Structures are given as C-alpha cells and as structure tokens.
Amino acid sequence: MKLPIVQSYAGFAMALAIAFMTVHTKATTTDLINEQQKANAQALMEKALKSDLAYEIVESLTTEIGPRLAGSEAEKRARDWGVKLGKELGFDRVSVEEFTMPYWVRGELKVALSAPYAQELYATALGGSGASTNNIDAPIVYFRNLDEIAYVKSGDLAGKVAFIDGDLMVPSQTGAGYGPSNQKRRVGWQHAERGGALALMIRSVGSNSQRFPHTGMMSALEDKWASIPVVALSNPDADQLRRLYKLGEPLKVSIASTAQWKGDVSSGNVILDLIGSERPEEIVLIAGHLDSWDEATGALDDGAGIGITVAAAKLIAELPTRPKRTIRVVMFGAEEVGLLGAFAYAKKHADNLHNHVLATESDFGARTIWRLVSNVNPDANATIDAIGKILEPLGIVRGGSDVPGGGPDIIPMARAGVPTIRLEQNGMDYFDYHHTPDDTLDKIIPEELKQNVAAYAVTAYLAADATADFRPEAKTRSEED
Amino acid sequence: MKLPIVQSYAGFAMALAIAFMTVHTKATTTDLINEQQKANAQALMEKALKSDLAYEIVESLTTEIGPRLAGSEAEKRARDWGVKLGKELGFDRVSVEEFTMPYWVRGELKVALSAPYAQELYATALGGSGASTNNIDAPIVYFRNLDEIAYVKSGDLAGKVAFIDGDLMVPSQTGAGYGPSNQKRRVGWQHAERGGALALMIRSVGSNSQRFPHTGMMSALEDKWASIPVVALSNPDADQLRRLYKLGEPLKVSIASTAQWKGDVSSGNVILDLIGSERPEEIVLIAGHLDSWDEATGALDDGAGIGITVAAAKLIAELPTRPKRTIRVVMFGAEEVGLLGAFAYAKKHADNLHNHVLATESDFGARTIWRLVSNVNPDANATIDAIGKILEPLGIVRGGSDVPGGGPDIIPMARAGVPTIRLEQNGMDYFDYHHTPDDTLDKIIPEELKQNVAAYAVTAYLAADATADFRPEAKTRSEED
C-alpha cells in the first residue's frame, strides 16, 4: 500500500496531555464546555487514537459484504450486517427503515477503438446509462468540453458517437475541482441525445492518471434517463483519443453495453441510537452510507464513513453516562444513485426534523480531518468554536461558521432547517480512487482513520452534551414541543 | 499526471559547464578520452537535455501504433514505423531482420468470486496460459506461496482452482524484488497442473496497490506450455482473497478464458546504423524493444527505450563527423514472449558477434539513470571509469565493473562473449506500471527522459570513438579478422 505523505500520530497521547494543560489554564475562554465534558473529550480522543475499531469495521464491511450497489442483494446483506454490528456493539436501539427505489445495473460493457487501429478502451457505464440496442461501430465526434456540445442541434450527431473531452480534474484539499469537472457526467447525455448520437463518451471525472474511469450517476431530465449508452473513459484513454484527434486520424469506436433499469426494489437505512440521558428526543445525527458503487468494495466511499461514525459512537457509549441528547448513527442506503436513503429519511422523519439538533456525515474518504465548518444558530457559534478549540491537538482548524452542507445525505434535512457541521477531510487524493474499481481497503491509512474517529467522537459527544441549542429559533421550537 | 518526486534538470546547462571546467583541470586523470571527445560529449549532453525528440518518438509509437503484442499485426505496423523513423532521421543504413515465432493471444477472460458472494476479480491471463475448456466454477485451494504448492502431489487439486498468494513485491531502486516475486509466475503452473487443478491464480507480481494485475510470460517445461488457465489477480483482489481465506469462508471462483496459441507468425528486429568512420565493422549496440504487452501502449516497456536510444543516436549523427565505430540501434521484436528477437539476432549474427564491441539495452522504464555498471575486458575498465566521470554531472555514479547483463535482449549475445554495460534507471516505481494496463504515456516524465538520452548519447559516442577495446582477448580477435 502506497500513498502520499502520511501524518504520524505516534506520540499523540503526550501532545494531547500538553495541549489539555494549556486549555485548562484558559478555562474561562471555553466555559461553554465544563470540566467534566473536557475530561471526557480528552478520554475519548486518547482512546480513539489507540482504537482499531473503525478499521476493523471497514475491513469487515468490505471483506465480508464486498461491493454493495444500491438496491442489490449485497446492499441487503450490508443492512443485515449493520444491524448485527449495532447489536453486538450494544447500541440502545437498532432499526432499519426500508424504502423502494428504481434499480439500475451496468451489465457488461465493451468499448474499443476500431479505427485507426484496434485498441481496447478502459471505460465504465455511467449510472442511468442505456444499453446499445445494436452493437455500435461508428465515427467519433470530438468535443473539447461540455460547452462545445451544448451548441449541438437535433440530428447533428446522427450515426455518430460523441466524445466530450475536458481537462484532468484539479485535485485539492477541499475537493473543489469535482463539481465543475462533474458537469459533463451529469448532463452531457442530454446534449448527445438531442443531437441524435448513438452513444456518448466522456473523459473520466476523476483526478487519477490510472486507467480506471470514474463512474457515477447522471442527472435525469424531467424524470427521463439516457436511452443511449453513456460511458466514461479513463484519463489515459481520453488522452490517447485527444492525441489521435489532433493528428487528424479518422476515429471510430465500437460500444456494446447491456446496462438496464430493472424495476423497483427495496433499499433501507440502518439506524443505531445511543439514547440521551436528559433530552432523548433531541438528536445529534452522524452518518455514513452503506451502499457503494459496484466495481469496488467501497472502502473510501463510504466504508470509512461507516467505520468512523460507528466507532466514534461506540467510544461515547463506553463513557460512564450517556450524553444528554441522543446520538444517532445513520447508515444511509442508496446514496450513490441520488441520495435516495437521505430523502426517504427526511420524508419519514419530517414531523421530527425540528428535534434534529445537529447533523453531519463522513463521506469524503479516510484521510485526516483538517477543518471544522458549521452552519448553526449564530447564538451557538461560540459552542462550535469551543469544540473547535478542543479539536486543535488533532491538527484541525476552525473554518467558517456560515458554510452550509453537512455531507451529501444531510442535504435533504438541511433543506428542512436542520443545523449542520462538517469535519472536512483532506481530499487531495480522494478523486484518484472515488467511484473507481480502485476504491479498496488498502487505500486506507489506519493511523489517519483513527484521527477521524477521535474528531467525530469528541464532536458528537460535546454537541450532544452541550447546553447550547444549535437550531434556528431554538427556543420557539422547544416551547412548541 | 502524478508521480513521485521529480528531479529537476532546469539549470543543468550551467551545472554542466561548471562540471566540465572541473574535469578540464584534471585532464590527466581522464586522458583515455581526448579533448575533442570531451567537447563532443559536453555538446551531446547539453543538446540532449534540451531535446524533445525521445518523448516525441515515444508519443508517436504509443499513439499511432498503440499496443503491439509480439507477432501481431500491430507489431508489424511498429516495424514499418521504425523503418520510416530511421529513414526520416537520416540513419546510414536501415534494415529489418524477420524471424518466425509462435503466436499466443489472451482472448477474453472473466474471473469472479462465486462464493461466499459474487464479486468480479481483476485478473489477467499470463502469457502461454491455456483456455478453460468448460467454464470453471470451483473451490479455491489456498497456498501461502510457491514453496507450499511445490509439495502438491498428483491428483491433490483435482476439481479445484489453486491460488498462490505471496507477499507484495518489494520495490527498490534496482528492481531486485522482481526476480524472487516472479518465480510463481514462471513455474507455478507446473505444480498446479501436476496436482490436477482446473486453473491457477497467482497474486500479481507487481509492486502496485492498484487493481491492475501484472501479466508476463510463463516458462515452458520441456517445450510444453500450461494447458489450464493461469491468471494473475491484482494485489487488492489477492488481499481480499487472503482476508476471506483467513475468515474461514468457503471460497469458490468462476473462470472463463479463451487464451490460445495461434501457430507461427512473423516478427522482426529493426536495425538502424550510423556507420563508423574508421572501424565500421566494429559495432557499439544500443537497444530497446518494439513489442509491448497487449493491454497497454507500452510507454515505459519499452517505448521509452526506443525513444531514448534512437534519440541518442540521432544526436550523435548530428556531430560533424561519425565516431570511429558503427553505432547500431536495434529495435528488438518479441522481447516480452521470451527474448525471441534477441535470440534471432544472436543466431543471425553469430559469425559477427566478435565484432560487437559493446552492447546495452534501455528496458527499465523512463526514470533517471543513477548508476553505470559494466562487464568488459578489465584492460578497458579505465575507459569505462572515464566515461563514468563524464556522466557524473547527470547524477550518475560508477557502479561495479564485474556486473554481467546489459539488458534482457543483450543476454543471448552476452552469453556469446559480447561485452556489456548498463545505465541503470531508478526502478522504484517501475513495477507499479510494468506489464499492466497502466503502462501509458502519461507515466513518462519528459525531463527525466532527457537525462536518459544525455547519458546514452555520451556513452555510445565515447564507446564508439574510444581507443580502448572492450572485448575479451580483443587483440587476438582483431588479428584473426
């Protein structure tokens, strides 16, 4: 296993002890968190940095369940696994909330250059792609980027295969390059279909220079999905096409795809609760998602999120007393195919979302957390700041207090007004593996995973035990209850 | 494109100028190389570090020809490309020497875990593998390493698929880990067949932690090749099998392979000569190989070697006069499948190998050269040392003077007594890409390729123009001529 520079957390215990001594002398600046809470936070942090639990959970999920496409039999096995895990770890309440979803499978795909010479191209069907009704062997029409294909008129691409190139995604700590790069994956098919293309190929959205193309869901247009095959080519294969195009070679490609929609099936969210000791109806929600893309075992996306949040909650459960509020771990189902579990949760709990005091999701891999951002009632910002202070020895800085979004599966409840925070992971190499066959267990650095658990345990515990209320107009709401 | 630390050669020209001034004042220690030769060497080095030619050659070969399996139509196109290139670049003599070879193709391969659950495994057929006569779906018998399977007796593996695990190859600058790791690829099948296995899977030989398995030729046993499918699993897939095995899960795998031998076909070596001005019959041979494995465009293996050696010779051709001896660039055919071009060359030129004064091959990727080793007449070691001194500003150290082997395709002629040197490249990440679908142009760092060209140009020029004779009993031989 090889990855870029790995931060070492050896000697963390000593660093923490020193850091806490410092915090102690400045107690007045953080008196929103009392001495007992600080001691518990320190204990959680130290235990988390020594615990292998999160890694063991990811290892178990990826090894014993394997790939777990939304709606598949494997995702069902993952739910059963999640229930069993929750019970074994002693959560107070374990439940599954099922929902129905449309099921798409990629089937088989073969893509090969057929002129100027035969060469297999490494490609993956995008989520929602159609099949090839006949095997396609057709000239390629090259588009430099999504903007170029937007001008295509009806019939312009009849009998052709469109290829949208574009540049290699810019890697960054925040993952900021993903959104722009991803647009061609989302809506490119709409232009290709309008033009009458037989199929669409796009340059892979990922930042990797390996021959693993990046899959992911397309966007439906007025509830309609692509009827033609839509595939991503790995970056080296896209480079090759670009070079051949620049040489002026006549390019042809053959595409055979059996992707299809298979009707409605069941998925579900698994919910593990640690019931609060004083305000059990109030919920601090930490989440990951249980489904993965089908081409890999989803260690980074999102086995890591499951491991981090479950292990963090388990450490909190081992404290002498439960925090005041309920801590809820949600293992969302069917995230990859459109946040279906998240929308199902928000719908089912619509009448109780006002009791969701704070929500966040770990769904950005397994590298270290470097920043805490939030979007809560401004009156409670000081408490988030104080939590941020406690997290400093883990190498975490306090970011903006007006940053919406607590993770993909938090979007539906955030829209309904649930306050959010995010413990931002270093995403510099996340899109080298994300949504590719290469998202496997060996990509996780155990020491970095532990830092994540420490941050989640401390944050969830302090938020659940805090006096502050993070909700907008919190007082009005609690009077209404 | 992302790769580990890249050495910068910016400012090389100035560093060279300073280095040469130093060498100048110590002229007496290197008087085996005269002032004119030193000036020419410096000019070659400076030009090479500014020249894009080698990269352009690799780009052309990998883009315009693509993958070029030994014996294939694509390898024939590569020979035509090589001839055209040699003529365009103004070599004095361009020729092709054809030979006949048995042709193996991998066909289609599907490998998937079928118990405890269904998961596609990323696998590649090893060169010489047999096909599955019926589709195989059978229990896996796990062997920790090659030693373990060596004890298998006839019938022990009837109805089973053997899996030889082993550890991840140790990466190193010299590539020393490859030989030991490779043994299971070479001879594992012989044990599996003896045991009556339906098929053999081995852990990929490469050092990469990506889901690209490493292909490569097996060894025949008394002219017999494997009759069963023999495949390598990517390291993450082998990890997964190992974990499942340790959990005690009953493991089953399905394998369908259409690999086959297709009878005899033509391959060939392309030879580009710069004819020597004083001793044209004496040959300094620098080589790469033209064929690649079929799953990638073979940029590192061995497009780079072709680019480096052709560009180096072209720079020498641009000097005001030809060096005394002939410089021969050989683009060997069919290297990957058993050094077939190299054996054909040694056989065809058997009566003239005594005129091969020195031989070497670039076939270890495209990273910088760090060491010069040799195996020549001890009387000529001082001249090799002097060449090493000239190479120092490129960051190259002088290694052993008793190190046999000038590269794979040099083996047959070295066995016949041809003296060899090797300009050793940094192989730390070579086996992350070698023999995988990921051996593509983006893995080459242009600045590092230039350093290779500089070293080859200087070395080939000085060896061809040197007074010293590198051959064993050189005098006796020249008297015989």
Give a short summary of the structure.
Chains A, B: InterPro entries: CPQ (IPR039866), Peptidase_M28 (IPR007484). Two copies of one chain form a homodimer. Helix content of chain A is about 35%, strand content about 20%.
Notable features of this structure?
elongated; homodimer; 481 residues; disordered C terminus; Glucose Oxidase, domain 1; 14 helices; disordered N terminus; alpha/beta; Aminopeptidase; 8-stranded mixed β-sheet; 5-stranded mixed β-sheet
Overview of the molecule:
The structure is a homodimer of 481-residue chains. Chain A is α/β, with parallel strands linked by helices and 481 residues long. The first copy, chain A, has two domains: 16-103 and 264-480, Aminopeptidase, CATH 3.40.630; 107-258, Glucose Oxidase, domain 1 (3-Layer(bba) Sandwich). The first copy, chain A, has helices at 12-25, 35-50, 53-65, 73-88, 146-149, 178-194, 235-246, 299-317, 340-348, 381-391, 411-415, 430-433, 446-465, 474-480; strands spanning 93-105, 109-115, 119-120, 123-125, 136-143, 161-164, 199-203, 230-233, 252-257, 260-274, 279-289, 325-332, 356-361, 369-375, 397-398, 420-425. The longest helix of chain A is centred in the last third of the chain and has 20 residues, at 446-465. Chain A is elongated and about 75 Å long. The interface between A and B is large, with 40 and 40 residues. Chains A, B: Keywords: Carboxypeptidase, Endoplasmic reticulum, Glycoprotein, Golgi apparatus, Hydrolase, Lysosome, Metal-binding, Metalloprotease, Protease, Secreted, Signal, Zinc, Zymogen.
